[in-house]
Design brief:
Layout lengths: L3 E5 L4 H12 L6 E8 L8 E6 L1 H16 L4 E12 L3 E9 L2 H18 L2 E7 L2 E4 L15
Parallel strand pairs: 1-4
Antiparallel strand pairs: 2-5, 3-4, 3-6, 4-5, 6-7
Length: 147
Protein backbone atom coordinates (compact mmCIF):
# COMPACT_ATOMS: atom_id res chain seq x y z
CA UNK A 1 0.00 0.00 0.00
CA UNK A 2 1.61 3.27 -1.10
CA UNK A 3 -1.15 5.39 0.43
CA UNK A 4 -2.39 7.15 -2.73
CA UNK A 5 -5.81 6.26 -4.15
CA UNK A 6 -7.65 7.79 -7.12
CA UNK A 7 -11.37 7.20 -7.64
CA UNK A 8 -13.77 8.10 -10.43
CA UNK A 9 -16.38 10.56 -9.17
CA UNK A 10 -17.26 11.38 -5.57
CA UNK A 11 -15.40 9.70 -2.72
CA UNK A 12 -17.22 7.39 -0.33
CA UNK A 13 -15.83 8.99 2.82
CA UNK A 14 -17.07 6.37 5.26
CA UNK A 15 -15.71 3.45 3.25
CA UNK A 16 -12.30 5.04 2.62
CA UNK A 17 -11.69 6.37 6.13
CA UNK A 18 -12.94 3.16 7.75
CA UNK A 19 -10.62 1.12 5.51
CA UNK A 20 -7.69 3.37 6.43
CA UNK A 21 -8.51 3.01 10.13
CA UNK A 22 -8.70 -0.78 9.84
CA UNK A 23 -5.42 -0.89 7.89
CA UNK A 24 -3.53 1.40 10.29
CA UNK A 25 -4.95 0.86 13.80
CA UNK A 26 -2.68 -2.09 14.64
CA UNK A 27 0.52 -0.43 13.36
CA UNK A 28 1.17 1.34 16.69
CA UNK A 29 0.17 4.82 15.54
CA UNK A 30 -1.19 6.90 18.41
CA UNK A 31 -2.85 9.41 16.06
CA UNK A 32 -4.68 9.09 12.78
CA UNK A 33 -5.69 12.60 11.71
CA UNK A 34 -7.98 12.94 8.68
CA UNK A 35 -9.04 15.86 6.52
CA UNK A 36 -12.12 15.58 4.30
CA UNK A 37 -12.67 18.14 1.55
CA UNK A 38 -16.29 18.70 0.50
CA UNK A 39 -17.40 20.50 -2.67
CA UNK A 40 -19.27 23.66 -1.70
CA UNK A 41 -22.35 25.03 -3.44
CA UNK A 42 -21.11 28.50 -4.40
CA UNK A 43 -20.94 30.81 -7.40
CA UNK A 44 -23.73 28.92 -9.15
CA UNK A 45 -21.71 25.74 -9.71
CA UNK A 46 -23.26 22.27 -9.78
CA UNK A 47 -19.99 20.67 -8.68
CA UNK A 48 -16.36 20.36 -9.65
CA UNK A 49 -14.50 18.20 -12.14
CA UNK A 50 -10.87 17.13 -11.91
CA UNK A 51 -8.07 16.05 -14.24
CA UNK A 52 -4.98 14.43 -12.73
CA UNK A 53 -1.49 13.96 -14.13
CA UNK A 54 -0.61 10.78 -12.26
CA UNK A 55 3.17 10.54 -12.92
CA UNK A 56 3.85 13.92 -11.28
CA UNK A 57 1.25 13.26 -8.56
CA UNK A 58 2.97 9.97 -7.72
CA UNK A 59 6.35 11.75 -7.42
CA UNK A 60 4.86 14.55 -5.30
CA UNK A 61 3.14 12.04 -3.03
CA UNK A 62 6.24 9.84 -2.70
CA UNK A 63 8.26 12.88 -1.59
CA UNK A 64 5.65 13.47 1.13
CA UNK A 65 5.75 9.81 2.11
CA UNK A 66 9.53 10.11 2.53
CA UNK A 67 9.13 13.29 4.61
CA UNK A 68 6.58 11.49 6.80
CA UNK A 69 8.83 8.44 7.15
CA UNK A 70 11.57 10.68 8.58
CA UNK A 71 9.14 11.51 11.41
CA UNK A 72 7.94 7.88 11.84
CA UNK A 73 4.66 8.89 10.22
CA UNK A 74 2.67 7.77 7.19
CA UNK A 75 0.46 9.77 4.78
CA UNK A 76 -2.69 8.64 3.00
CA UNK A 77 -4.59 10.41 0.26
CA UNK A 78 -7.65 9.78 -1.89
CA UNK A 79 -8.76 12.08 -4.69
CA UNK A 80 -11.50 12.17 -7.29
CA UNK A 81 -11.04 12.05 -11.03
CA UNK A 82 -13.87 13.45 -13.14
CA UNK A 83 -17.10 15.01 -11.91
CA UNK A 84 -17.98 15.53 -8.24
CA UNK A 85 -21.36 17.09 -7.37
CA UNK A 86 -21.84 19.67 -4.64
CA UNK A 87 -21.97 18.41 -1.05
CA UNK A 88 -19.86 15.33 -1.78
CA UNK A 89 -16.16 14.74 -1.19
CA UNK A 90 -13.37 15.03 -3.75
CA UNK A 91 -10.37 14.86 -1.38
CA UNK A 92 -9.43 12.96 1.75
CA UNK A 93 -6.02 13.05 3.42
CA UNK A 94 -4.69 11.45 6.58
CA UNK A 95 -1.49 11.41 8.56
CA UNK A 96 -0.75 8.52 10.91
CA UNK A 97 1.90 9.02 13.57
CA UNK A 98 2.91 7.62 16.95
CA UNK A 99 2.69 11.21 18.29
CA UNK A 100 -0.36 13.45 17.84
CA UNK A 101 1.65 16.68 17.48
CA UNK A 102 3.52 15.28 14.45
CA UNK A 103 0.24 14.20 12.83
CA UNK A 104 -1.51 17.51 13.57
CA UNK A 105 1.30 19.61 12.14
CA UNK A 106 1.91 17.36 9.16
CA UNK A 107 -1.76 17.20 8.06
CA UNK A 108 -1.82 21.00 7.89
CA UNK A 109 1.41 21.15 5.87
CA UNK A 110 0.30 18.30 3.60
CA UNK A 111 -3.11 19.81 2.75
CA UNK A 112 -1.62 23.27 2.11
CA UNK A 113 1.14 21.86 -0.11
CA UNK A 114 -1.44 19.75 -1.95
CA UNK A 115 -3.48 22.87 -2.76
CA UNK A 116 -0.37 24.63 -4.15
CA UNK A 117 1.60 21.86 -5.85
CA UNK A 118 -0.35 18.71 -6.66
CA UNK A 119 -0.87 18.25 -10.43
CA UNK A 120 -4.66 18.22 -10.25
CA UNK A 121 -6.65 20.60 -12.42
CA UNK A 122 -10.04 21.84 -11.23
CA UNK A 123 -13.03 22.78 -13.36
CA UNK A 124 -16.36 24.23 -12.29
CA UNK A 125 -19.44 22.37 -13.48
CA UNK A 126 -21.99 24.89 -14.73
CA UNK A 127 -25.03 24.05 -16.83
CA UNK A 128 -23.50 20.73 -17.87
CA UNK A 129 -20.19 22.27 -18.98
CA UNK A 130 -16.67 22.14 -17.52
CA UNK A 131 -15.21 25.62 -17.02
CA UNK A 132 -11.54 25.82 -15.99
CA UNK A 133 -11.29 27.35 -12.49
CA UNK A 134 -8.42 29.67 -13.41
CA UNK A 135 -9.01 32.03 -10.47
CA UNK A 136 -8.51 29.13 -7.98
CA UNK A 137 -5.58 27.47 -9.72
CA UNK A 138 -1.85 27.63 -8.97
CA UNK A 139 1.20 27.20 -11.17
CA UNK A 140 3.05 24.02 -10.35
CA UNK A 141 6.70 24.58 -9.51
CA UNK A 142 8.89 23.34 -12.35
CA UNK A 143 6.01 23.07 -14.82
CA UNK A 144 5.93 24.72 -18.22
CA UNK A 145 7.93 24.73 -21.41
CA UNK A 146 10.87 26.71 -20.06
CA UNK A 147 11.03 25.19 -16.57
Amino acid sequence: MNGLEIYNGSLNVETITNKWYQDMKDKNFGAIITFVGVVRDEDGIDGLSFDIYEPILNNWFEAWQQKAHEKNAYVLMAHSLGDVPNHTSSYIAAVCSPKRRVALEMIDEFVEDFKQNAPIWKYDLKCGKRVYADDRSHKITGAGLLA
